[in-house]
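Researcher: Structure prediction, please.
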Amino acid sequence: MSWEDEVEGIERRRLLAKSHGGDEAVAKHRERGKQPLRERIDQLLDDGSFREVAPIAGNAELDEQGAITGFTPANYVLGTGTVGGRTIAVGGEDFTIRGGSPGVGGLRKSVFAETLALRYRIPLVRLLEGGGGSVGGPAKGQARQPRPAGPDGLNNQARFHSIMRCMGEVPVASAAMGPVAGMPAARLAASHFTVMVKGTSQVMIGGPALVERAVGKTLTKEELGGHRVHLKSGVVHNLADSEPDALAQIGRFFSYLPSHAWERPPVTECDDPIDRAEPSLRAVVPRDRRKPYKMRTILDAVFDRGSFFELRRRYGSSQITGLARLAGQPVGVLANDPMFYAGAMTAAAAQKLGTFVDLCDNFHLPIVSLVDQPGFMIGPDAETTATIQYGTAAICAVMQARVPWLSVMVRKTYGVAGAAHYGAEATVLAWPSAEAGALPLEGGVAVAFRREIAEADDPEAKRAELEKLLAGRRNPYAAAESCGVHDLIDPAHTRRHLCEWLSLASPLLDAQLSPAQRTMRP
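Model: Predicted structure follows.
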């Protein structure tokens, strides 16, 4: 007597589990412009590489003879596969079953996602679409959920513990592929990279019905948590035009990072000459100190062609953060954007900078900072948003960073905020346009010569006269002649200097291959 009937039962369940919530539910999902979850996973991974965990989790319906007559799969799909030949873990809610709200099997698989990534030290991708638990309880025929929503019990590890560990040990990327609320929204926030799909995804703590009941406001999902909200809130790093674009961005993000915190980032082939000169950089920074310029022009010129991948562009916009390569080696990039508040550091910019430095430090990305920092943003808005608090925390993040750090003084470095651009042992290069001090020239003149300006017949003319006089005395060679910087360089040869520095500094990463240990920050 063989076990053929049971084997047939396995295969029957495997087949039925791939049907999602049924043809009608899948058709409605497609009508909303969305792909079924398994198609998303296949699109993300290398062909044929997906290996599912618990593929027949779900609820089987049996006849009196024990033969299977129907099957509702668990509404969370989880497994491993490869992206560009590198193994990752990937999981997500199946919105075609109960709107992604987890049943018993779905909950257990979702909780195991982080454990899977940690156990094998592989990156984790979450494809999120759905809410958290439901007061309606489990679906018909299913047992109640095995854990309460509150404390996890005396013998259970807190559910969020593995999520926290992932943030320090393996790269995590999450995509909002539709409405995301409750626990899935918290999971999205606990990621190194987040992306949402324009027009079809929203991220919310609680949905419109909860908001209306709790605070009496009637809002649509898009008004409550659409991309216009969360690109500015900073919850979401990037926006995708489509689901394939979101998946492609995740793949690109991972290409800069190691699989875990115990190894170095991957180095790729590079055909961009290390000594490529860019004479146009000599004219990028205007001689008029008040005129802005396009910092991204500099980034495109000095890093490997096409390698700059920006993060959180619309959040804390006076600070640019992103990933790039120098001679094929991944680096983290910080820069000021003088097109926004002249590059001044706002509370949002400080938070953006601090979390980005943490990412680079934890996954061993050397940091290159292109500096044009006039100081902290000032005024009543800066005070009410606690700019100095978040700015100080960002500076602490910079001081605790272990990775090699190089700063290029492009133009201004003023005030306390300037410290956020120079690691504790940073190599510092300066362009001829660089200037530094306790206060920007304009503010310094207003403070130091306040009485003289006030007593002048034409105060504004006097102010302009003093500013022009002091600006004319600026000596671009002083810092280099006094050994205040490592070198004063021709902007055209910035790329060569960066690549030479990285070749010297990158072996230092070998002594840092472990998760970061940090003190509390303000």
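Model: The chain has 19 helices and 18 strands.
Researcher: Thanks, that helps.
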